[in-house]
Amino acid sequence: LFDRFSGEIDPLGQDNCLLFSCGLLTGTAAPASSRLHINAVSPLTGLLGSSNIGGQAGAWLRSCGIQNIIVRGRSNNSVYLYIEEGRAEIRDAHFLKGLDTFETQEKIKDVLRNRHLACLVIGPAGENMARFACIISGKDHAAGRTGMGAVMGSKNLKAVVVAKGGKRKSTVKTSITRDAVRQYVKMIKASPDFKTFAQYGGAGYVKWADDMGLMATRNYQENRFRQVDSIDGRRLDTYKIKSSGCYNCPVQCKAVLNFARKKDPKKTATRPEFEPMLNLGAKCGLDDLEAIVYLDNLCSKLGLDSTSAAGVIAFAMDLYDRGILTRQDTHGLDLQWGSAQVMETLITQMAYGEGFGELLSKGVRQAAGSIGMGADQYAAHVKGLELSAYHPGSIMGTALGYAISSRGGDYNNVYASLEYRWSKDLASRRFGNPEAVDIHASGGKGKLIRRAVLVNIVLDSLGLCKVPALSMLGTFDLKSEAALAGSLIGSPVTADELFAVGDRIAGMERCFNLRQAPGMDADTLPPMFMDQPGSNLNQETLDAMISDYYTAMGWDECGNPDPGLLKGTGE
Questions:
Q1: Looking at residues 356-371, what average pLDDT do you find?
Q2: What is the average per-residue pLDDT within 505-528?
Q3: Which of 372, 403, 428 is the last residue in one of the domains?
Q4: Does the structure show a pLDDT above 80 at 212?
Q5: Residue 261: which domain range?
Q6: Is the pLDDT of residue 264 over 70?
Q7: 365 and 234 assigned to the same domain
Q8: Bridge-partner residues for 141, per DSSP?
Q9: Which residues contact 101 (CB under 8 A, 6 or more apart)?
Q10: CA triplet 275, 276, 281: central angle to 5 degrees?
Q11: Residue 261 and residue 128 in one domain
């Protein structure tokens, strides 16, 4: 992507490139090797956009002998890309126009008379270029963040359809390979979190987040949610029909729910993950578990990132509660905290570019600029991307991660579970400071977040899911992943070599963003998070952590990488 253009471009213009990239191990015998990475310049941030999706699509692309897809330009009419082994065709998609993501996939399978297709599709939100439109595969897999669905819509590309091929990714099949795969699976299943994820998915950790004080209640006004028992995701187990999951995954953390509602005639729904449970719930003041499930599935049907959707809704509700917005501004909507009906209306409006939702569909940063009257004081974003579910005032490493993340305010590419999983003794040995694993302290966070950034980058590059690697194993040393990669490609790979890859990619991401926005000083957090009661986070502390992170990365005091470091330094 770095080499495809230079300087600033219109993210929704024809010159933007949309990249679909399989990881090194995607579609192999490696456990949980389903992941497909998607990149473009983001319409939300104007910087590097990235998203990641599981399911079957990545593995099936590899089965057709395809590692990458690059889409540039714009079709005059709605089209879809059809891929099978030995063939790729751009086909007319007029019959799909206006359909939601579920309808689109069903229609494609009916027309092609093939139920065994992996589809990457957009819904009305993508067609209307809502800035945080996402890409959906199946009913429960989303490339959610940074508006990749809007970029797809700007190109009039309704879907990428993949028929499973016969080419298994060429790997060395030896006893070493089998042993490495078995060992990785054994480690996953030995984790105390394996059974929780297998039974409840990420939804099983809602009460844990509340106990830790990580909730983003009512647009981050509080870090606990009094009604947390009402949105405990473990209660969804009573609705579960069956578990499901991604390609070659031993966890199977997804679930289909028996969910009878008037607006869902098929009476099924997919179980929300951890993020939408917290974002559509506590962040918006909603304590109705069934409503959260319905709204999450609605976001998927319409093709909206539920994290950004909840972020802008909570922002609007906050402004309404403070009197900055009135019913006249909201086109008659009463934006009371926790109103599922209003949330449903806004989600639909955002997808179709209608009513008050049309303004919110541009993202919280642009909406705040249009509203004025101090609205930006309540806009929870970094670099234009709405924040994830964790309250940054409650967990210092994640606060730093939000601030420096190359794609904006999101924890999933700086996922740092080691901050609350590792012992102080281990932190002292690895980072020289036991405070690194104290979520309320700022010491040692530069080195900790460097390690988290590099490990997340490497896992994305390998095509491995982070749930087993980081939520279950949590070693953050890449030794198991190196052994797995080496055994599958037939050549030794060390953890240091993988860390060096992470260093190079982190530097390239930084250079890409600096080129897109010269003089970028966006590595920060909104003022709304500074000096909150009960929090140790303030601007001076954040600046010191950012400086420590730049030092740990080997960058200068302004965050500019040394060109020599782009060759990779290892761990």
A1: 99
A2: 89
A3: 372
A4: yes
A5: 202-372
A6: no
A7: yes
A8: 137
A9: 121, 122, 123, 136, 300, 301, 302, 303
A10: 110
A11: no
